[in-house]
Amino acid sequence: MVIFFEALLVLATILISWFGLYVLYRLVTDES
User: Fold this and answer.
1) For this UniProt entry, which segments traverse the membrane (predicted)?
2) Could you write out the DSSP letters of every residue in 2-31?
3) Would the pLDDT of 26 be above 70?
4) Does 32 have pLDDT greater than 90?
């Protein structure tokens, strides 16, 4: 169960960081 929780935490971290980079990329490209 702990392994499942850790996997879910890692997945959430990856999704959040990917979403942040995507939004930042969209803002930069939209500005230029």
Assistant:
1) 7-25
2) HHHHHHHHHHHHHHHHHHHHHHHHHHHHHH
3) yes
4) no
Rounded distance, CA 12 to CA 15, Å? 5
Burial class (CB in 10 A: 0-12, 13-18, 19+), 7: exposed
Q: How far apart are CA 16 and CA 4, in angstroms?
A: 18
- Give the pair of three-digit tokens for residue 28: 């930069």
Q: CA angle at residue 4 from 17 to 20, to 5 degrees?
A: 5
Average predicted confidence (pLDDT) for the chain: 94
